[in-house]
Structure formats: structure tokens, C-alpha cells
Write a structure and sequence with these properties.
Elements: E1 18-20, E2 32-34, H1 44-52, E3 57-61, E4 74-77, E5 79-80, H2 88-91, E6 99-100, H3 105-116, E7 121-124, H4 153-173, E8 177-180
Length: 188
């Protein structure tokens, strides 16, 4: 949900689109919505609408089912919050569940599911991994409720960057490829 998402049309390639967590506030009708949390205020009104929309497939951990969910449009996954390095490489992208928890839950959950279902190549859009301020971190207008996370926004970005750098060689080794829509923004 980084600001570079404003400069691309994610539908222009004609490929399925997966929105991760709060990106639903910008990408209102993706094929898939990947979120490792309960539906919450950070997902905005757009998230409430998407959660109720039976045409959007929601992928969530099996212990994070929110009220008002449509069982026909939910894909539930096992999610392990205890696996840590160095055991991580044995489980990551192994083709098995449970998925492991990364530092930014939804993005790391999401890439595991995409690879689990057989997606070999991921094209990242809006995965900027840097921001000069909390208000500049997202592709959508930051609201007051978003500012609750301002105290650690740098830490979250740094941890996500570090995890993706560690995970990328494992993904490559297992036959998966990651590309960036904007190569100047992602350096894995």
C-alpha cells in the first residue's frame, strides 16, 4: 500500500490482482485480498465493503475470521506464529501449511499463500519499503486512526525489508521469482 501504487494500474497486465491488507483502500476490487488480521479500522470503509463482497476472495488465517464474513469467499489457512530462524528456511515456501509469521504479518502471509497455490512469479506494486513520514507511507489519504502506528512506522518498514531480503533467496531456491513494478523502489 505504498505511495508508488498511485503511479500504476495494477489491472493493466490482465493478471489476477491480490491486494495486501490496507491496500484494499486503494485497490477496491481485487481478485484476492490477503490479510493476516481481523478486519479493523485500518482497512477503512473500503475494507468493510470488500469483506462483505462475495466476489472478492479473502485469504485469512483460520483464527482471524471476522464477523459478517461470507464463508463462500473465505480461504482459511493454518498460521504458525512460533517458527523462527534458523528453522524458518525448512518451512518457508515448502508447499505445506502452516505458514510462518513474518514481521509484517499480511505481506509475508500473502506471499506464502500465493506460492502455496502455485503462483511462480509475483510482481510487486506499491511495496516501497521506505517513507520519510507516516503520512507519506501509503497510497491513500492517511486518517487520524492510521496515525496510531506512527511511533513505529520506520521499524515496521525496516523489519519487512530485512525479512524479504532473507526470504527472497529461499523463494528463488524453491523456484519462485519476485519482480518489482518499479525497480527503483524495491531492492531485494
Amino acid at each position: 500500500s505504498g505511495p508508488s501504487l498511485n503511479s500504476v494500474d495494477v489491472y493493466s497486465l490482465g493478471l489476477p490482482v491480490a491486494a495486501v491488507s490496507t491496500a484494499i483502500r486503494k485497490i477496491s476490487h481485487p481478485n484476492y485480498w490477503l490479510l493476516a488480521d481481523y478486519l479493523n479500522e485500518m482497512h477503512g470503509e473500503e475494507g468493510k465493503n470488500a469483506y462483505a463482497d462475495p466476489n472478492i476472495i479473502k485469504i485469512v488465517p483460520d483464527n482471524k475470521i471476522s464477523a459478517n464474513s461470507n464463508p463462500q469467499s473465505l480461504v482459511l489457512c493454518k498460521y504458525d506464529t512460533s517458527t523462527r530462524w534458523p528453522d524458518l528456511d525448512k518451512h518457508l515456501f515448502s508447499g505445506n501449511q502452516p505458514f510462518v509469521r513474518g514481521p509484517h504479518k499480511s505481506v509475508t502471509f500473502g506471499i506464502q499463500w500465493l506460492h502455496f497455490i502455485g503462483i511462480k512469479r509475483i510482481i510487486w506494486a506499491g511495496n516501497d519499503l521506505s517513507a520519510s513520514s507516516m503520512r507519506g507511507k501509503y497510497c491513500y489519504e492517511v486518517k487520524d486512526f492510521d496515525m496510531k502506528k506512527e511511533y513505529n512506522y520506520h521499524k515496521t518498514l525496516d523489519q519487512t525489508t530485512e525479512a524479504l531480503r532473507k526470504w527472497y533467496p529461499i523463494a528463488l531456491q524453491r523456484g519462485f521469482e519476485w519482480y518489482s513494478w518499479n525497480l527503483s523502489l524495491i531492492h531485494i
